[in-house]
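#data-curation
PF: Archiving a pair of folding outputs for the training set. Convention for this channel: one message per protein, sequence first, structure tokens after, nothing in between. First:
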Amino acid sequence: MTNTISEKIYIDFYYKIFLIFFCLSPYTLIFNGITDILISFIGILGLYYLYKIKFFLKIVFKIQYLIPLAFYFYIVLNSYYSSEDINLSAKSSIVYIRFIIFYFILSELLKNEKFRNKLFGSIKFILIFWLIAGIFISSDILFQFYTEYSLFGHKSTDNRLSGPFEELLAGKYLSNFFLLLSVIPLLYLKVRFFLILFYIFFLSIIILITGERMAFINTIFLIVLFIFFDNNYLTKKKKLLIIFLFFFVFAAAMSFNKDLFDRNVTQTINQILGKTNVSADKKYFLDHYGILFKTAIEITKRDPIFGTGQKTFRNECSKNNYEFIERVELRCSTHPHNYLLEILSENGLIGLFLIASTLFIIIKSNLRYELLMHRYILFQLIVFLNPLQITGRFTNTWISSSMWILIYFMILFSYYENNQKSK
């Protein structure tokens, strides 16, 4: 009897902290670092549960847990083996364990029927929180578009909007979680198709006006996946309607605003073709970003197997070995602005293999492609991890948190849909 009461108490406790996490994560991401603190805090609290079920004595040897651990230990050991700045590399790699521990805890807790039933009973509540977050953030961006200042007092910069974020992350945020902020909750709440369609285009326009072109391109890519690979929800008529409205809405938006057209069409084409009048230190695509990519490739050639160590691109790029690649201010940054090149240059082919294996084994273990929620999360992850895009740093706190939140939702939906089928 005592054990039953004790189990009920700690299951209730874990249910509450995970409910708080899933409900508040879209808001904590606004304040850079808070989501990370929340993940770390839950990870520490959850270690007791892993200890109680003897996770590290027997369960950890399952392939879906061993591969992520192998990746983690590799980046830590490689920081000491490959890096010339051990403190910088080790500090970045050691703390990455928080995301993996959280993954362990969530996966194992969802095997507990009592925890699972309590959390599943709050799915609707969680999705409403995400829907409200999308409405709130996009409304603040719209307000900033007309007044130059967001509700949080942040001023627009060079025709780029931040909304409630201190940094220019608003477009990236809405794009990273596009379907989780719109389609998934609206479908779950059984909202009419035309209202879902309206909200999809509303969010897309908001992403467009933030001035973050990569976020807008990713959103287009995501909508393409949504249209052409969703054979359950979208009929042919609905797909044709979306395609028609897509071209009409965005053509109209950019024709009424010259700045949007110049930035998203004229400037992009000119930069891809190498025709730009901006100063050298502001060139990109085939200019600044192209130089960063080339630098990362040359750094990778130095040690293609192990790389130069976690977070070392910022140091390596300034070395004399790479002076043939233009001026140091063009070839240097904190990272090469591409996930694939960052992993290759800093952790080599072994690091790339292990992170790819980690993502593959987690997705394979949890994905149910025939289910809409799973398919949409997979679409988000495909766009998020697209190796051809210009990106932030892969192990950046905000970016890592965003990627792992998508993974955590995939795991949650996996158990949720199985639970619904068994009823």
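PF: Second:
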Amino acid sequence: MFNVFPFDRIKLLEFLPQGNVCEIGVLKGDFSMNILEITKPKKLFLVDSWKHYSDGYVDSNNVLQKEHDYRHEYTTKRFESFQNVKIIREESIEASLNFENNFFDWIYIDANHSYSSVINDLNAYDSKVKSFFVGHDWLVGKKEGFAVNEAVIDFVFSKNYIFTGITNESRFRTYIISKSMNDHKFINDLIVKYINKT
């Protein structure tokens, strides 16, 4: 059984390392701004295709292309003054080819929530990430088109990684995967220390 942390995804950011970070699935950059302000990364890469999918994928954020274009323009303007932020408008798998192995300290995955997309993102960035996979929409209950839980579990078992835990939002939670026992111990010790103080 994995840990359920007594806080939400915003608080979780306080325990993640600084360094090079990537968010996959950006929308209008609300959580990107949280990452930027709380973790103060050396470099933050924001990856999103801002593209409508007409293959039957059901998601409230699979909006019309006009809205995607507006979101991309809005996000670009929102972060244009931050020299440590780079926006990449590409499919996430294609974007992964831009980065060297072990480039990112951690990544945040919140793009297409179908099984194939989530597990493909995890696998594509596996060699690019040093320590942690973090991702949104670990789901409590069922939602059509969402298979984050299944993809994450299969990925963890296939790689022999460690499922460090999930946040405690009522339904759409954030998970964290550690690539090694040292990584797991590093972040878990920080969280336990915080819990014992509160």
